[in-house]
Design a protein that fits this description.
The protein has 20 helices and two strands. It is mostly helical. The chain has one domain (12-438).
């Protein structure tokens, strides 16, 4: 790497406490925002839709605002820190896809009040994982974590296809128009523009490829008369943040499900912190940094849940930006966090995103959800494919995805247990952990 990038020498670039100044810090921070913006708001749209919130409605706009606001707040927990809380590294936080399957199921069957209440309690439990995270990492080797991430991606891909085709009769679009050429032309525009920019451009254009693809699809949808901006004109310029907007209702099964995914999310964050330290500073992450990052993950999730936001976690694509630029400054990501806070406090931004027709979102999430599945496969590629590991993969995925595809197979289970059993993520994770612990390591290869 050259001795001079963005006007800094190698020592400055590798120093988390170095501030490059606003002139360089703002565009570098904006790059982090552009890389994660679309992925950050998508889970709220999916979970809100599962809960019955109308697309384009103020209620869905509020969920999107909270996703932006508390991604920024959680990022500040990481970069600025408070006592033992925060890695004090350039870790960008955002709404986690890992929870989408579980929370969508809970929201659809028990309501957003139960889902968000579980997020608050799960966030508190996640916070205390910071004290023991190093001791339980052995439960989640690449085999288990890779399977969980793969199951998340595979669970979400049908959702992406449904959105790209225009939703469903019980969602937004009329059943007669489902799968129409108009819907697919919009979705394919998003995909083509996103892939074109990602692979044939550099810098900000490449980093923000999916966001720009969504804007291109949105423009085409607008030209085709698919966009309704009525709620945008009604939205204000300053948000009113409401504690417990849907009330609080405890459900043990929902809390268990969210906590299980929180553990997996915490392990992902450990990986992101380790990768950031290695890519940006050429060293291993310290125990203090890993624990601090986990504390910030949990606190960000709990605080977000209080105000209607979904769980937060570190974003791996932003780790890639640190590796690409070589700039380790946590203050750059602090600027990114502040940008997200401002976005979250402006309701008109949330209203514009909520007005996005489903085919636009579908084109983007086909790419994003496919990348989630690919990330799981990439993690599994680190695993030695013995007869034992192949059995664990086969049985875990068969149970996790099979029960999700045929939910009537467990129709006589109690309500909450049925939601967990058909969530894809929870049964895959439980089966993978148990089989990895039970099956002997010396099975024939």
């Amino acid at each position: 790497m050259a001795d001079n990038q963005a006007g800094m020498n190698i020592e400055d670039m590798r120093n988390p406490d170095h501030f490059p100044g606003l002139g360089k810090g703002i565009p570098l921070g904006l790059q982090h925002v552009l890389a994660m913006f679309a992925s950050n708001v998508t889970p709220s749209i999916i979970v809100g839709g599962a809960a019955g919130l109308a697309f384009g409605s103020p209620d869905l706009g509020y969920l999107i605002q909270m996703a932006m606001l508390f991604a920024g707040v959680a990022t500040l927990f990481q970069t600025i820190g408070l006592g033992p809380i925060g890695a004090r590294m350039p870790i960008m936080q955002g709404t986690s896809f890992a929870f989408v399957g579980v929370l969508a199921g809970i929201a659809a069957t028990m309501g957003l009040n139960v889902a968000l209440s579980a997020c608050i309690i799960g966030g508190v439990i996640h916070f205390f994982l910071g004290a023991v995270i190093q001791r339980i990492r052995w439960l989640f080797p690449p085999l288990v974590t890779g399977l969980v991430i793969l199951s998340i991606g595979l669970y979400l891909i049908p959702v992406a296809i449904k959105y790209a085709a225009g939703g469903a009769a019980d969602f937004q679009m009329n059943a007669d128009s489902f799968g129409s050429l108009k819907h697919w032309s919009v979705a394919l525009t998003v995909i083509i523009v996103s892939l074109g920019l990602k692979f044939f451009s550099k810098g900000l254009l490449s980093s923000a490829a999916i966001l720009i693809g969504l804007l291109a699809g949105y423009a085409l949808a607008f030209a085709l008369g698919m966009v309704n901006l009525d709620n945008v004109s009604k939205a204000g310029w300053l948000a009113t943040v409401k504690p417990l907007p849907y009330g609080f209702e405890f459900n043990l099964g929902a809390v268990f499900a969210v906590t299980l995914v929180s553990i997996v999310s915490a392990i992902e964050t450990v990986g992101d912190v380790s990768a950031t330290a290695k890519a940006g500073a050429g060293r291993d992450a310290t125990d203090k940094e890993i624990a601090g990052a986990t504390y910030a993950d949990g606190l960000g999730t709990a605080v977000a849940g209080v105000f209607g936001g979904l769980p937060n976690t570190s974003f791996s694509q932003n780790v890639g930006i640190v590796g690409m630029t070589g700039i380790m400054s946590r203050h750059v990501v602090t600027i990114a966090g502040l940008i997200m806070v401002v976005c979250g406090l402006v309701p008109k931004i949330g209203a514009v995103i909520a007005s996005m027709p489903l085919p636009v979102l579908g084109g983007g999430v086909i790419v994003m959800f496919g990348m989630v599945a690919a990330a799981g496969l990439n993690m599994l590629s680190e695993v030695n494919m013995t007869r034992r590991t192949m059995i664990i993969i086969a049985v875990s995925l068969a149970f996790g995805l099979g029960l999700n595809l045929v939910p009537t197979a467990v129709q006589y289970l109690p309500g909450t247990v049925k939601v967990l059993a058909t969530s894809a993520v929870a049964p895959t994770a439980i089966m993978a952990i148990l089989l990895n612990l039970i099956l002997p390591q010396d099975m024939e290869e």
